[in-house]
Description:
By secondary structure, the chain is α/β, with parallel strands linked by helices. The chain is 36% helix and 19% strand. The protein has two domains: 9-145, NAD(P)-binding Rossmann-like Domain (Rossmann fold, 3-Layer(aba) Sandwich); 149-248, Dihydrodipicolinate Reductase, domain 2 (2-Layer Sandwich), CATH 3.30.360.10. It is globular, with a radius of gyration of 19 Å. The mean pLDDT is 97.
Amino acid sequence: MGLSEGNGHPYSWSAIFNGYEPAAMQSCPFPAIPEYLAKRRFPEDAIAGAYVTHVWTQDEAVSRHIAAASCIPQVVREAEAMIGEVDAVLLARDDAENHLRFGAAFLDAGLPVYIDKPFALNLASATALLARQRAEGQIFSCTALRYAREFTLSAEERADLGDILSVEATTPKSWAKYAVHVIEPALRLTGLRFEELETVGVKRVEGATCAKFRSRTGLNLSFTATGDRPSALALDVRGTRGRRELVFGDTFSAFRAALQVFIDTQKRPGLPIPRAETLDVVRVIEAGLP
């Protein structure tokens, strides 16, 4: 399900399952997608044992283009027509304020739902979404960068850093939609919980937002969403013994890893991401909003 403005996940996520038709994908409005798909081999690099079979967006012409580009056999005119026909749903919209609106019918039907990032913009909305579940674990949500290899440190790399003193993170685009891409990996890397953090300050200048936090132990976190100014997606990690700059670059692998976790969860029920961690990310996002 999609499409929200500026978000190409209905194209890319579907292609990671199904493969893609190069000519149709070339004309999708997100040039980066055919570029990184062209570097992969299909069906070898596709997710095995699961397929995107139906697509719905609020614009049937867009739905048909996604279907053609990502080899989706069925376009539906009403989203609810998928109920009874599919095993799970990808809610591939990143406008968090609409997640409950578009996801409610599927949650009520008991279908597992992967909700695109950010899960919610405030704790109240996150709680309302979770309350709609028919069973614990029905909702899966994260930034795919949680699983990015670039944001993962080996035991040896951690030892070289020593104790982490600070993480300075940057992401392009808006705080509301993109800060999650660095907040979630940074919290996972440091192991910090929201209740351990004190908000030092939030600054907003010309569309950019910078929010700074300090832990009880003195670890400093800084998250900057640069708005319209270009920026790398990066974590600058400083420790007592060294420093590492972690720069994200492999979109396909991160998306594939997150989607695979979702699929694997359907085969082996459980919570791959502790709910407390998801809610901590939401609370940091909320702290940086006006």
